[in-house]
Amino acid sequence: MATLFEAARAGDRRATSEILGILRAFARTVCRFGGPSGSRDADWEDVAQEAARRFFESGLRRYRGQGSESSYLYSIVRTTVLEVARASGRRNRREAAQEVETVAPPTDPLARLEVGAILRQLPESCRDLLLKVFLGDASYAQLAGEYGIAESSVRTRMTRCLRQAREMAAKGAAA
Amino acid sequence: VTDHVTDRLPALLAGRLDPEEASAIRQHLDGCADCAADLRWARDLQEDALRKGLRHPGSERLLELVDGRGEAASEAEAAHLASCEACGREREWLRSLPPSSQAEAELAAWARPRARVLPLQLSGLALAAAAALVVIFLLPRDRGTLPDPTSLARFDPLPVHLDRSASPMSAFEESRLVGLERYVEADWEGARAAMRRALDERPESDEVRLYLGSAEVLAGNHEGAAALLRPVADGLEPAFRDEALWILANLDLAAGDTASAERRLQALVEAAGRHATAARDLLADLSPAR
């Protein structure tokens, strides 16, 4: 008999509906505990929706029998709440930074990175892209939306920027 | 993978690839000095940032560590976790949640067929009445015999929905929870009173409308139930919509409105949800009766 995930992969709408029901139940459970920052900023319906998006976009494809299917769905809900809280935290920090910018300029991360000097020599667009991809874990889809360009262009640009930075580092080490 | 794989490195480092793709990329990296150098540079950048608190382990990685799965923390990761307050709060929060085994047990209880769960939650006279209904429900029906809507209107809330551990609770949450608890105890009066208070707080809640509608059916108030359930049957939430359609179809049949029942049953078949098979059977039963 096909499992729930196998049925969903085969396009069974009933299985999809069951999965959505389970994600909703878990989202409700997890959100009752508040958010990781102690706040209640995660609405359980938003969490369920985001968890469903993550599951059907990539989670279902990545599942290879690691734990039971329900445990896997529970993991997706828990990480979704973390991501929602992190995104909310980042937004709050950005807003706070804008308010106090004139008093205390934000710390420059490049000054603390070993490759900071190399990143500083890159064009600003490259530097911004590499920091967002490797430090901010931004996806190509997110960046394509932010820059207003195709996802394939973000991929190409990231490859070119990474190569440029790595070759500059190699030259610096050789010199 | 024959082309360079540098563009896939962020996903590889974040563990976001499916196993086949990750394996193909690792195979390419074994034979491609350029891509392997790109990976080393990117990994060094990430570890340096992690050590200095400029990035945090991904949420999936943090969960792996809390659940004791996956690889042990690297030196950079361990250094980060030892000093990062935000990650400490996140790990504490993850530990405070029910473990997977408990969540799984709750789902297993929920997934049991309702006809078998139903009598376990009733007692006394209600148990005898329910047993009679279950016998009717399970026996093969003659074509054209209509089910009693009361036997089909009851469903079991997920155990996780009855969780009282969160505090403080809003007035809505408190009333909703009391309503569900009374509902499980088959105290229809208590369930109706509490659910009505919840509905006053949040009139748009399809969940409360559904349980209140179900309790009204079980208390014999079919008209009141139908008025509560109609907006849910037109709502956007598939699980609630299906339950509301199912109860309404059976109320229609009890009231002799076969045409309306057939429309609702057809909608259930098309939605392909929990009641699709039963709705198809019922439609087949109705055909010769017309």
Secondary structure category of chain B:
mainly alpha
What is the count of helical runs of chain B?
17
Number of helices, counting only DSSP H or I runs of 4 residues or more of chain A: 8
Shape of chain A: elongated
Q: How confident is the prediction overall: mean pLDDT of chain A?
A: 83
Unreliable stretches covering 5 or more consecutive residues of chain B? 112-149
Order of helices and strands of chain B: HHHHHHHHHHHHHHHHH
User: Which range does the strand content of chain B fall in?
Assistant: under 5%
Q: Characterize the main sheet of chain A.
A: none
For the terminal residues of chain B, how far apart are their CA atoms? 63 Å
Helix content of chain A: over 70%
Q: Determine the N-to-C terminus distance of chain A.
A: 64 Å
Total beta strand runs of chain B: 0
Main sheet: strands, sense, barrel of chain B = none
Q: What class do helices, strands and sheet pairing of chain A give?
A: mainly alpha
Residue share in helices of chain B?
A: 55-70%
**Could you tell me the radius of gyration of chain A in angstroms?**
21 Å
| Cα-based radius of gyration of chain B, to the nearest Å | 27 Å
**Uncertain segments of chain A:** none
The secondary-structure element order of chain A is: HHHHHHHH
